[in-house]
């Protein structure tokens, strides 16, 4: 093109590539006012099993707008789509309601990533065998810490009382006022059944302590696999994932996989002390970063002044704090 031709061009000759639109991208998410409420009762490879208020059991996927929002057993969620529960149907989870309690754990005390085990349970049933395998108090203490920090009421369920006495173990927890249920393998767990009715309760314990046996008695037709204890006193893992099972009396029991350790890296000493109103006020006057273990670990801890008033209870609290700090043997 010559210079003369260039001079003849005006703005009408300029070709402009069309843009992608001037309408701003909205970050507003749909409200899903028509979403139905359900409870998550199982999780398996990106699919969630949900119990509707109508009684139907629905399979659902997580909606794209939720991103990576964690959805765990016990969560109350909003669901849209096909909620009939018919075979080969799939609904969408569009909302996760605020949780009333959370049971969390980490793989160990150095793991920075906490994992939510169960949401919205009102009770944590710590299943411990009195023999075969023998009870491990460090594990009980750590479960107590997780329950207090997560807003669950701890309940100590002692199994196999036909093999050993519960007296020595119970003496360690008298000052903590922990509810206790004692069961035998040759009897129906009537007392435990009554405590679980019309609640959402989570069962946790080492493999081989009889947890799945209890679930099979509590929920007819549950058919949870029952393992045996090895020659070294360790149970074999029989439950592979958490699942909520509806109780005939009403309510739900969540059976969790047997675990060998219970990491508490996500819990601070103050989280534990807050569960004890008689100590919480004094702890507020402690030096910054106080672990509330007392001297020599924590010089200046104000809880030391309460020793004359509640020696046994403070000793029990500090045992839990020591457990959180990894100062005990809690592994299987």
Question: Can you describe what's shown?
Answer:
The chain is an alpha/beta fold. The chain contains eight helices and 13 strands. Strands 10-9-8-11-13-12 form a six-stranded mixed sheet. It has a five-stranded mixed beta barrel with strand order 1-2-3-5-4. It starts with a helix and ends in an 8-residue tail after the last helix.
Calculate the mean pLDDT score and round it: 85
Q: What is the H/E string?
A: HEEEEEEEEHEHEHEHEEHHH
What characteristic shape results from the CA principal axes? flat
Sheet with the most strands, sense and barrel status:
6 strands, mixed
Cα separation of the termini = 85 Å
**Amount of helix:** 10-25%
- The share of residues in extended strands comes to 15-25%
Helix count from the secondary structure assignment: 8
Low-confidence blocks of residues:
228-239
What's the count of strands?
13
Q: Taking strands numbered 1, 2, ... along the chain, how are they ordered across the largest sheet?
A: 10-9-8-11-13-12
SS-based structural class?
Answer: alpha/beta
What radius of gyration results from the CA coordinates? 27 Å
Pfam family, one: RsgA_GTPase
Keywords: GTP-binding, Nucleotide-binding
Protein name: Ribosome small subunit-dependent GTPase A
């Amino acid at each position: 093109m010559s210079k003369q031709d260039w001079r003849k061009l005006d703005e009408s000759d300029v070709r402009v590539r069309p843009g992608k639109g001037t309408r701003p991208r909205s970050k507003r998410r749909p409200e899903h006012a028509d979403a139905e409420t359900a409870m998550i009762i199982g999780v398996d490879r990106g699919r969630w099993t949900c119990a509707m208020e109508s009684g139907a059991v629905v399979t659902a996927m997580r909606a794209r707008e939720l991103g990576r929002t964690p959805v765990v057993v016990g969560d109350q969620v909003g669901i849209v789509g096909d909620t009939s529960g018919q075979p080969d149907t799939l609904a969408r989870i569009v909302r996760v309601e605020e949780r009333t309690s959370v049971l969390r754990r980490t793989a160990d005390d150095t793991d920075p990533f906490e994992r939510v085990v169960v949401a919205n349970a009102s009770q944590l049933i710590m299943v411990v065998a009195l023999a075969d395998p023998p009870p491990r108090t460090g594990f009980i203490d750590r479960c107590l810490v997780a329950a207090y920090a997560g807003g669950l009421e701890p309940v100590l369920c002692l199994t196999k009382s036909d093999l050993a006495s519960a007296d020595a173990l119970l003496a360690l927890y008298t000052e903590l006022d922990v509810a206790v249920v004692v069961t035998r393998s040759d009897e129906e767990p009537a007392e435990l059944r009554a405590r679980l009715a019309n609640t959402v309760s989570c069962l946790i314990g080492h493999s081989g302590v009889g947890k799945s046996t209890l679930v099979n008695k509590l929920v007819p037709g549950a058919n949870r696999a029952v393992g045996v204890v090895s020659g070294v006193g360790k149970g074999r893992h029989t439950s592979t994932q958490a699942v909520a099972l509806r109780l005939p009396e009403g309510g739900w029991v969540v059976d969790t996989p047997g675990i060998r350790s219970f990491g508490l890296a996500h819990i601070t000493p103050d989280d534990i002390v807050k569960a004890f109103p008689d100590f919480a006020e004094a702890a507020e006057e402690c030096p910054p970063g106080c672990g509330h273990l007392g001297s020599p670990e924590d010089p200046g801890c104000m809880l030391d002044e309460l020793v004359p008033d509640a020696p046994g209870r403070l000793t029990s609290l500090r045992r839990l704090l020591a457990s959180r700090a990894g100062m005990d043997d809690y592994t299987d």
